[in-house]
Amino acid sequence: MEYDNDINQLLNNCSTSTHFIEMEVFYTDHVRMGLIALKALGAGPDRLSRFVLVYNEVSKEFRITNEKRREKEVLVDIAKSQLGNFLGKRANFFSLLSYYNNIRKTYTTIEEFVCNEFPHVKSWIGGSAFHPLIIIGYGIFARNETMVCEGFAYLAFSNNIPLALDEWNFSNTFGDGARDPFSVLEELRCNNVLLKALLKNETEGSPDLESVHKGDEFTWRLSMIIGNKDHVKYLHGKVMEMEVTQTKIGDFYDIRCLKGWIVDLALKIHLSSTRKNLFFLLHGISSSWTLSQVLTHLDYSESIKTVQLYLILLLSCYIFERCPSLDTTLLNNQDVVDLNWDEIKQLAIGEDRDEHIYKVVHICWQRSLENKTETQLYKSAAVNVLNNDLLYSC
Fold first, then answer.
1. Considering the entire predicted model, what is its pTM?
2. How far is the C-alpha of 329 from the C-alpha of 64, rounded, in Å?
3. For residues 311 and 226, is the Cβ–Cβ distance under 8 A?
4. What is the pLDDT, as a whole number, of residue 26?
5. Strand, helix or coil for residue 271
6. Are 113 and 132 in contact (CB under 8 A)?
7. d(CA 380, CA 339)
8. Among 160, 289, 350, 390, which one has the highest count of C-beta atoms within 10 angstroms of its own C-beta?
9. Contacts of 4 (CB under 8 A, 6+ apart)
10. pLDDT in tens, 94-111
11. Contacts made by residues 380-384, CB under 8 angstroms, sequence distance 24+
12. Helix, strand, coil: what percent of the chain each, to 5?
């Protein structure tokens, strides 16, 4: 999507040139993602400016200026061969940003940059509650290279979530399973060994993980699941059992269809949950959609590996949201039949809302443009987030 100079200027004014990419207490700065979603939904300049004013007012006590953050960091010149030494340390953000800005200049296009550099950091995509991935994806969507490079730096900066599964275990045969994904989720809910292990670790504590993640509760919980080799092997097995009901050409899935399938799965999980608007199920929607922006630019093998990794993380989010019951009858909401998208979009942008709501409505709108056969699903998912308060369980 091409944005005009005014919106790109507004995005760049909200970049890390003025404020750090995180606020206090591990809260990621969301202002640019909200701006892009609102713009896509049809918000004009005055509405976008109002959003920035409201967001800045609400977050002012948590914002970290660059001057304050830079006082804590000594700039380091990072060579490509040294990058691995800096990953996952929650340190040297501006050094990592300088590294990626310089690396970007060696590629002809941003697409080429993403294709070649993302595979080196894909294991980190669950870090900081998926926010670095979300920043990269929205940057790609808006064709804002500043955001893309900052997202890469944030991905490299964020706490490492140690996936206890060697990359060679990721198979190119993904999608050949025969199980409906909802039967897999029901198995996780009923055979709750992983949930019991998570609850046990939460009760008894895990000093090693607590010392590493220092208050980053999302990463701490996720690490309890996917840092265990038996747990992650089990989850990967469940991922491989899933049937992908999308176009297959010979031995290969059409990545355009596969990325849509992932977003729709996340939408269906969130919408069918009997506990409404669970935050990290909602984050599954925004992270799956932004991943789909990245997948477009990866080669086939990398795309399939990344999809498997992401689905392990998505199942893990379902587990630490306490495996809510899923009612698939909620996917067919007859109340939205007579609503049109102009009404839904106006309902969204007409009020000052949490920026996550704008993002989900935007994603539903985008999917409705791409897949006309599931219009009712996308309307239902959009109305669901508009009508229910966000529910934080972490």
1. 0.92
2. 45
3. no
4. 60
5. helix
6. no
7. 10
8. 289
9. none
10. 999 999 999 999 999 999
11. 380/271, 380/330, 380/331, 380/332, 380/333, 380/336, 381/267, 381/270, 381/271, 381/285, 382/344, 382/348, 383/333, 383/335, 383/336, 383/339, 383/344, 384/270, 384/271, 384/276, 384/277, 384/333
12. 65, 5, 30
pLDDT value of position 214:
52
φ, ψ for residue 60, nearest 5 deg:
-60, -35
Q: Which of 343, 13, 284, 339 is nearest to 147 (CA)?
A: 13
End-to-end CA gap in the chain: 34
- Paired residues of 252 in beta bridges: 249
pLDDT at 213 over 50: no
Contact yes or no for 326/269 (Cβ under 8 A): yes
For 71, which DSSP code? T
Structure token digits, residue 50: 């109002």
Query: What DSSP string runs through 331-353?
Result: GS-GGGTT--HHHHHHHHHTS--
Torsion, Cα of 371, 255, 130, 188 (10° steps)? 80
- What's the chain's length in residues? 394
Quick one: tokens of 321?
């949201």
Please answer whether residues 80 and 100 qualify as being in contact, where contact means their C-beta atoms are separated by less than 8 angstroms: no
Which residue has tokens 């840092």?
227
pLDDT digits (tens, 9 = 90+) for 275-321: 999 999 999 999 999 999 999 999 988 998 899 999 999 999 999 89
